[in-house]
Amino acid sequence: MTPMLEVAALEKRFGDTTVLRNINLKVGRGELVFVIGPSGSGKSTMLRCCNRLEEPTSGSILIDGKNIMNALSKNLNTLRLQTGMVFQGFHLYPHMSVVRNVMLAQTLAMKRGKAEAKARAMDMLDRVGLAHKADAMPTELSGGQQQRVAIARALALDPKVMLFDEPTSALDPELVGSVLKVMKDLKAQGMTMLVVSHEMGFAREAADRVVFMDGGVVVEQGPPEAIFGNPQHERTRAFLSRVSSH
Amino acid sequence: MDRFLDTFFAPQVFARYLPEVLAAVWTTLWLGIVVIVAGIALGLLLACLRAARRWWLTLPIVIFADMLRALPPLVLILLIYFGLPGLGITLSGPLVLILVLTAVLAAFAEEIFWAGLTALPKGQWEAGRATGLSFTQVLVRIALPQAVRMGIPSLVNRSLAITKMTALGSVIGVKEILAVSSSAQAVSGSATPLTLAAIAYLAIFLPAVVLARWLERRFTWKV
Q: In this complex, do A92 and B149 lie within 8 Å of one another by their Cβ atoms?
């Protein structure tokens, strides 16, 4: 079966610096793949290439078997509906209520009617446990709640893949759990997910595969027990010991 | 004391020129409203065009905004009113006043909207684009509403300032408050018409300032 997301021979250069070199990775249907690595390793850039927020220099990105690198800018907007993205900084729209945040792209990009978009938004907010906050403004919510609304906003577009860019890094420690729980629920419901994160405990517990990146390349990848229990590369070992010493 | 009252508040002069000044209040008001609406609309349009980040759009917009913010409006008014007839183009006083003040307000408004757009966190654009919205949709539905709210205090100040500049019309024969009252002053030899003008400006601008405060409160939100 074709993987839901496939990154092949991906390269990204900014001027003279190469930040991603020959990245290859696959995320199967319903899989949760975790990307770890030191800051500056290119993992966020790689993730942002998957919906072309960052324009790859070369290589291909296949979503459900279709290469999105061939799309012209107009079709790109439609293609982006297939990938839901969750950012480190949430980026809810502060001038709209929670429910309107979740409705906006449904009505504009998917051309759903208002009633349908609202029903769908309420469903998604319910899924992240925040239906009771539908009419609140984003700034009235805690960071963890804002991030869950951001997840609902992405889910409402029925994406094939969810991309998480350090979803818990900006959160107070006591709020991290609520976001991870939503992600675990998503996995249980069969969502395909690619996650860049430092939550090693969560990776161990929930990931199907872990990809370790350093210096713009994939150093190694494998099941979590292999990566965490028996890393093959010196760089992986060095990174993991640095992280676990915290 | 009597002399003071006689100079600034002579009752018969007051009564004699009140109707003319009231008519002039109306002129100032409609000039101000036309300039504010047209200037802000044009400024908004220019800021949107500049947001497209094409150099051949940005360059003329920046030149326009910088020139009009640098030049005293009176210079432009005189130049156009007295200069253009030399080229066979004669524009009426009110039209020249509207054109110049609209352009000046547009220049400031463009900069205010642009400042709001650039102050917006990049993540707002990315969140919009990542959910499949086009550039225009993000601009209109996400970026502009926030930029406008950020700009409201400055826009209000600029709008009040530009409305007061309708007094410059007095040098090119526009029958607004200052022109009418200063010619009344010349004819009557009393400063009372000018007092009348000051009262008229207060009558217009005090409510406007109160309205402005309300607008600012209404359109800001906690961050």
A: no
pLDDT tens, residue by residue, A19-34: 999 999 999 999 999 9
pLDDT of residue B139: 96
Contact B132/A110, CB-based, under 8 Å? yes
Integer Cα distance of A23 and A8 in angstroms? 6
Structure tokens at A21: 């070199």
B62-93 burial string, b = 16+ CB within 10 Å, else e? bebbeebeeeebeebbbebbeeeeeeeeeeeb
Q: How far apart are the first and last CA of chain A?
A: 40
For residue B223, the model assigns a pLDDT of 43
**Distance to chain A for B209, nearest Cα, Å:** 25
- CB contact B126 to A (< 8 Å): yes
Min Cα separation B222/chain A (Å): 7
Residue-wise pLDDT for A31-73, tens only, equals: 999 999 998 899 999 999 999 999 999 999 999 998 998 877 6
Of A75-79, B48-52, B58-62, the one with minimum mean pLDDT is A75-79
pTM of structure: 0.88
DSSP string spanning B57-90? Answer: HHHHHHHHHHHHHHS-HHHHHHIIIIIGGGGT--
ipTM rounded to 2 decimals: 0.92
Largest CA distance in chain B: 75
Closest Cβ opposite residue A139 in set B131, B149, B222? B222
Task: Choose the closest CB to A53 out of B130, B221, B222.
Answer: B130
Tell me how far CA of residue A85 lies from CA of A35, A57, A73, A124, in angstroms: 15, 21, 18, 15
